[in-house]
Write a structure and sequence with these properties.
- It comes from Actinomadura latina.
- Pfam families: GTP-bdg_N.
- The chain contains four helices and two strands.
- The chain has helices at residues 2-10, 52-65, 78-88, 95-98; strands spanning 70-71, 92-93.
- Strands 1-2 form a two-stranded parallel ribbon.
- The two termini are 29 Å apart.
């Protein structure tokens, strides 16, 4: 994640928050209820790569911080990008979007 933060900063952006979708580690306050453990075998949402609650959490933070875009650590399909941009209300990027394109004049090779 720190490499991605460096890329955002290199491009003139500022990271105002970080979110992680964790599965299978939650329980109730006393640690007795299964919490997320029950959902470990369920696949991530192919539509958003995360739970509805996590999407809401990111939306709230984006609005509060007035973030102009959201960057994901996972590469996104075109459909995921469209759905997430609509839900989050801003452009959505993945690591491939932040990398400088290699050019023939780079002196490598």
């Amino acid at each position: 994640m720190s490499v991605l933060v460096s890329e955002v900063e290199r491009l003139g952006g500022h990271v105002v928050g970080r979110f992680v979708q964790r599965r299978g580690v939650s329980g109730n306050k006393k640690g007795h209820a299964p919490g997320g453990k029950v959902n470990m075998d369920r696949p991530y949402s192919s539509r958003t790569l995360m739970s509805t609650g996590k999407v809401r959490e990111i939306v709230a933070a984006r609005v509060q911080t007035e973030a102009k875009a959201v960057v994901f650590t996972n590469e996104l399909t075109a459909r995921q990008r469209t759905v997430l941009a609509e839900l989050l209300g801003c452009p959505v990027f993945s690591p491939g979007d932040l990398r400088a394109p290699e050019t023939a004049d780079s002196g490598q090779g």
